[in-house]
Amino acid sequence: MFLLPPLLYLFSGGWDADGKGPSVWDTFTHQGGDRVFKNQTGDVACGSYTLWEEDLKCIKQLGLTHYRFSLSWSRLLPDGTTGFINQKGNCVDYYDKVIDGLLANGVTPVVTLYHFDLPQHLEDQGGWKSEATVAAFDAYAQFCFRIFGDRVKIWLTINEPYVHASLGYEKGVNAPGVVELGTGAYRAAHNMIKAHAAAWHSYNKLFRKNQGGLVSIALNSDWAEPFDPNSPADREAAKRHMAFCLDWFATPIFLDGDYPTIMKSKISALCKRQGFPSSRLPEFTDAEKMMIKGTADFFALNYYTTRKIKYQDNTNTQPSMSADKEAEQVIDSSWPVASGSSWLAVVPWGLRHLLKYIKDTYNHPIIYITENGFSQSDPAPLDDNQRWEYFRLTLQEILKEVRLWDK
């Protein structure tokens, strides 16, 4: 099974240029093996680190109003700590050039602090399974707010914590390649939520008054439909799928500082059946709940696809995060699938349902759609009718929902 690395790794390149330290993705791909497609790396990728001026020309040509990009933690702080700031390669100057170039051309920078690329030095000390990474991330975030926050007004702390936790620390098919079934993803996610909240509070207390920006976290989610709408078991399974995917992070951050009740009760019941003395899902203290609650200035959503969900009884004696859901994902055979990604069923109306779900569940937040797209196999045709049609239909579905909100 092969998974795509993060966008930062796909476009930036210059993996060891100008004093950059190694990230977990550098280590992961350089090890090669079954988990790395054709032993390819992102050492060069699209080369944005050296070809930024060409990228900026394309941005201007497209007439973009916003441009989202990710900072490289290990490029700025090679060992992940502020004790070692990379002055050698003028990496701060590089990001200054990117930000200033965007602003000079009327483009708003949307900056992500973390896109799966943990400095290897921090991973060697436990990575996201270690609470020490919470403080390291907060220090890194404060460094970025201080250096770039006079010009950057839209910040995202962590991109898709669900994907990073489940694929990087549970199944091990993404960097850093840790396989800890039933526990790894929960531990990693627990610390990512606390790290996000710590960074939000740092911005709120130290920078917001003078900089006037907004801070959130980019959450990904499918939309879930019951496989059989008349089946109570399938309907409940669809609710669990949403709880284990989007609500896992959105409920503590946007509502009450704690995990969804449906998620906590399901994991607790399974752990009892499996002989565990306590739940495999970590618990937040009361103080942590108060610290996490309300730590987002808008709702940042990454949406790609929809699934139909069947109830699936978990009879496993061994723990597994995916089995904890007791929900099987199914792609409807009538849905077209993007040629470049076998998992990406094209379901534009799913986004409309998901937007309504977020509005109704999370008290009508401002929503930014921070990722959405359509992939094709190489070589993609220049006469790109499929992608054009995909975005046309997607924008139509968004417009339908927005018009209902305006009534």
TrEMBL record:
Keywords tagged on the record: Signal
InterPro entries listed in its UniProt record: GH, Glyco_hydro_1, Glyco_hydro_1_AS
Active site: E371
Domain of life: Eukaryota
Annotated signal sequence range: 1-19
Signal listed as a keyword: yes
Coiled coil: none
Family according to the record: Belongs to the glycosyl hydrolase 1 family.
Annotated protein name in UniProt: Uncharacterized protein
Species assigned in the record: Phrynosoma platyrhinos (Desert horned lizard)
Lineage: Eukaryota, Metazoa, Chordata, Craniata, Vertebrata
